[in-house]
Amino acid sequence: MNNFTFHNPTKIIFGKGTIPKLKDELSIDQKVLLLYGGGSIKKNGVYEQVMQALSGYDIVEFGGIESNPQYATCMKAVQVVKNESIDFLLSIGGGSALDATKFIAAAALYESGDPWNFMNDWDSIKSALPLGCVLTLPATGSEANPNAVISRAETGEKLAFINAHVFPQFSILDPETTFSLPERQIANGVVDAFVHVMEQYMTYPVNAPLQDRFAESILITLIEEGPKALQNPRDYDTRANIVWAATLALNLLIGVGVPQDWQTHVIGHELTALYGIDHARTLSIILPAVLKHQRRSKDDKLVQYAQRVWGAREKDREKLIDIAIERTVGFFKQMGAPTSLGDARLTFDDVPKVAPTLEKRGANLGEHGDIGAKEIAEILQMAATA
Predict the structure, then answer these.
(1) 238 CB contacts (<8 Å, ≥6 apart)?
(2) Are the C-beta atoms of 53 and 19 separated by less than 8 Å?
(3) What is the pLDDT of residues 306-347, one digit of tens each?
(4) Secondary structure letter of residue 362 according to DSSP
């Protein structure tokens, strides 16, 4: 196992009927900016619950955050923060609203020029406004980590940043708020969480059995509960298990002491930025191709994954690797997610910018740092012919 430092300061408030606990987490003296997306929270009752919990508080609102939050939108919110002398940011919604909130929290106090600079220099973030969230869509794990992903339309970029200053102080996770999600968002959330685990697990062994079994338990839970959520979206226990699995998938715990990959996400971000494909759907397209492309370098973990997660009992290692990849593709299809570029109505010839764009950024991807433009093009070719 590799050396590590683990610290997660986010307070998780989990369960039905927990939104009223907001008043216990915020001071009446704080001026709060509510940040949310397209307004679904006003249709499903979450907004009303939040406003009731914060009755008497000084509240300012900022809506309209996109599903892939845009830099321009975030900067408008930064101006609101400054004009209104905001003390605290409260995200209501899914990971996109929360990622935007994290960017806004850092950008509002950034003193080194254009805040977009810190997307390529994470350590330049020296402070951020305090923030919290009421989660309504389990997927990104942003409710319990210091990560965020922001897009910038004018440059065609979708970049991530990580900085401890943007850990949420608290996150309220009421599974009942997810009951009204459409089928596509349910599927996307499960796939996103699944691939988060795979990016931290599907590398090579470093004698970290506890992290491996944590990861495997989350994968098995998502495999079991994901299809149930599609069949019965209002089953509380199913939704609760998915919400908690998505949080644990990326709250940093399973990734400590082990190598991590993240090439599926980096390539997927380009597909979203350039072609508008849902984030989770880029992951279900790219991950199978990555596993095929790197079946040699990931062979020990692929065998372990086939045996422990999918229950395969074959003796032949090559067959076990085939099963690992085939079952992963089958699960994504069961969730209604695409597993090839063709499923997204694209071909290899439609995505010529991805590899060169990542090469210009100096991307050396994968757990060994050996995936460059040539290998990315090979992965995309495999994704096209799946």
Answers:
(1) 225, 228, 229, 232
(2) yes
(3) 999 999 999 999 999 999 999 999 999 999 999 999 999 999
(4) T
Task: State the CATH architecture for 11-177.
Answer: 3-Layer(aba) Sandwich (3.40)
Q: Which CATH topology does 183-384 take?
A: Dehydroquinate synthase-like, alpha domain (1.20.1090)
Strand order in the sheet with 31-35: 11-14, 170-173, 131-135, 88-93, 31-35, 58-62
> Is the distance from CB of 245 to CB of 353 less than 8 angstroms?
no
Q: Are 177 and 242 in contact (CB under 8 A)?
A: no
- Over the stretch 79-112, which tens digit does the pLDDT of each residue have? 999 999 999 999 999 999 999 999 999 999 999 9
For residues 138 and 124, give the distance between their C-alpha atoms in angstroms, rounded to a whole number: 30
- Angle CA 113–116–119, to nearest 5: 120
Could you give the CA distance from residue 323 to residue 354 in angstroms, rounded to a whole number? Answer: 29
Which residues are paired to 161 by β-bridges?
A: 148
Q: With 90 as the cut, is the pLDDT of residue 363 above it?
A: no
